[in-house]
Design a protein that fits this description.
- The protein is mostly beta strands.
- Helix content is 3%, strand content 41%.
- It is built from two helices and 39 strands.
- Strand 4 and strand 5 form a beta hairpin.
- The longest helix has 8 residues.
- The chain is globular and about 60 Å long.
- The two termini are 13 Å apart.
Length: 520
Amino acid sequence: MCLVGCAGPAAALPGAQPAELFAFERYDVVTGARERQTMLTGFLAGGSVADLAVVDSDEDDGRRLRIFTFTDGDSSPELQTTLRREASFVDVANIDGRDRLVIYGGGRLTWFDPESETERALVAVTADFSPPRGGEIPHVDISRDVNADGRDDLVVPGVDGFRVFIQTSAGEFADPVKIGRSPDLSRIYGADGYRYDPWGESRVHEMDYDQDGRQDLVFWNEDHFAVHHQDEEGLFAPVAETFTTEVTFDSDDLSSLAMGGMTGRVLDSLADLNGDGVGDLVVFSLEGASISRKRSTYEVHLGAPAPDGGTLFARDVDFAFQSDGRIQLGMNRRDFDGDGDLDLIFTTIDVEYLESSLWKRLKGFMGDDIWLDLEFYSNTGGLHSDSPDAVRRMQLDGHPSVREDGWVPLDIVLRGATHEKRKTQKRHLRAFNTTLLIGDVTGDGRPDLLIEETHRQLLVFAGVSGPGLFARQPQRVAVAIPNDEEYTWLVDLNRDGKQDILMHHPSTTEPHRVTMLIAR
């Protein structure tokens, strides 16, 4: 163990609220040599510090599980065993108040009992998820609290939609309900890492459609919406109610814009953006006949209670977000200031970076990088600011190198960082691999912003009160960062309410290593 210090800001800018210095305790665990290993964390043994589960294949294609426990800062492999040979992916879910390693394979889900070192039956289900690489047992996130009752449910991708199993108060799972359409997982099959989130590609939206205080599940089905209502027991209706809207859009698939003329209107989300308790409809619009004339807009159509108890969306745009001279690549929602309202984050790229030229290629060869902007809009009383309250920059593809092109095609940008076509494209293989994390590592209840500056340094912008949202000057953490953001994530490892940093350093020539930075 060693203490990783954070160098404080050299000078506070006017109006900046200084953040207290903090540090991380660092722990390194060597997990052995294998071509591919999957790392998961959870309180599997019931201790006060999370355990590290390592899953990989042995020489005979058997499934090997090792669980490392931590005592007084030291780690040791508490358990070494094998899983059933047909195991194809794993996850960690909280079941009946305990973290459990969940295993899928052979048409059934089981959970691993560390006391008896056996797998116990969970549910029978056929999952439609094929690990993209042989010899790997990936981490597929199928546990999600979809009814907002504080318990993990199971959302399993199938050929015709998701099977949703609701966890009851007794720690059991109700009969599944099929939700959504056939999922398109092409946007995640190109990942370098082994952590996949199929539900994030489900295009199923969580909103209180009938204003009864319960979260319903809604999805677009070609020409209408379908909503599965949640009842008093937290279960979703197996038969969906349908409704239509006067708001026009072409698709609910952002990837569809990456084809043809790269113009159109796409359903982005259903969420309560103004805090009135009614869901709103957001459309992403991309216009412009040529790259230099491209313009993007996020259009918000406010929702209102319908006479029949549903939700009506305004036909006209109530408010919109644009970034002058920049294309918006995504909108995320989060309550940064703790007032209960959703603040917004837009990731944007300058249009200049989307066209090639000899000069740009030369600049890329000389080390110039492509930059993304993170634009933060705070929400006060249901109203978002007209311009960003905070802007932070990050590199598109990590630390500059002479292998970069100085520009990136718009179709690659629209497809996203982990699209399966990434495996076959010859250029821009490292696009969108810079580490970006948001979570409370300082323990003050406000989310902090963590951005990779170089492959050996992480910037931490501490969350502050007020419209600026983050400290203007970052604190710097000196630590080796994995080559791709998919190998770094936040998790509370010791249940102290602070997010800790976990980094997996894979290698094909040396033993794998895990670095844990425990926030202090």
